[in-house]
Amino acid sequence: MLETQDLTIRFGGHVAVDRVSCSFQPGTLTAIVGPNGAGKTTYFNLISGQLPASGGRVLLNGEDLTRLSAPQRTRRGLGRAFQLTQLFPHLTVLENVRLAVQARCGMGLRLFSVWLQHRSLIDESMALLERVRLAARADSLAASLPHGDQRKLEVALLMALQPKVYLFDEPTAGMSVDEVPVVLDLIRDLKREGRHTILLVEHKMDVVRELADRIVVLHQGALVADGEPASVMASAVVQNAYLGVAA
Ligand SMILES: Nc1ncnc2c1ncn2[C@@H]1O[C@H](COP(=O)(O)OP(=O)(O)OP(=O)(O)O)[C@@H](O)[C@H]1O
């Protein structure tokens, strides 16, 4: 179980995430919603360790991760989708995935290691590329992929790490209409496996309604609603938050 207790960050006088306490169970998908600037991405950054908390704690299965670096949290099982800048643009799509698989296996990033030739690494990497419908692009340079394919590659890299917790921050942003279902299918598959804790920041309410078991609403950094999708969506506090009126 992933848990945040009174998680807080201040930027100068501005409290971007304000004492958010919430727990997330394996096998569930929770959508984090809220108006622009509500603190959703910052909340993810605090969970994954990209930002240090001003107060509060992040716990995974009872272990306090709050003082750990982002890579240490990744090793504990917190998976944050790679940013494009973390891809190796001049390596092929397959090589990028293979390096992520190697990293998970603790083989480091020794490019010329004999392990590179290891069949099982290549097989696992190709299987991941098939899952994200990128097998046909295995030999393309990562930098040459269109935007939607780069997003799919990010998901493949994340899956290569086999995290316990998946943090998806607007996974379909900037994708064309025909690419969106591929990524949503992947998230649906992960959810069906029932082992993962999945958190999703998403502005598209139809996607949220379809995928989420639960919705958490942030407004001005604070948690203002938490519950089953239909009731949260209908609640006055959400209507107010989305209208920008103080809840
Ligand atoms: N590094 C930073 N320094 C200063 N202020 C920051 C920083 N990161 C975020 N903020 C501020 O914190 C608030 C929350 O931003 P955040 O990006 O988390 O919102 P969000 O809910 O993800 O918004 P959006 O839906 O637009 O992506 C905003 O007021 C933002 O300007």
UniProtKB/TrEMBL annotation:
Entry's Gene Ontology cellular component terms: plasma membrane
Gene3D superfamilies: P-loop containing nucleotide triphosphate hydrolases (3.40.50.300)
Domain called ABC transporter: residue spans: 2-245
SMART domains: AAA (SM00382)
Spans traversing the lipid bilayer: none
Pfam families recorded: ABC_tran
GO molecular function, one term: ATP binding
Keyword tags: ATP-binding, Cell membrane, Membrane, Nucleotide-binding, Transport
UniProt feature coiled coil, ranges: none
Xref: InterPro entries: AAA+_ATPase (IPR003593), ABC_AA/LPS_Transport (IPR051120), ABC_transporter-like_ATP-bd (IPR003439), P-loop_NTPase (IPR027417)
PANTHER family tied to this protein: ABC TRANSPORTER ATP-BINDING PROTEIN, CONSERVED COMPONENT OF ABC TRANSPORTER FOR NATURAL AMINO ACIDS-RELATED
Annotated protein name in UniProt: ABC transporter ATP-binding protein
Gene source species: Inhella proteolytica
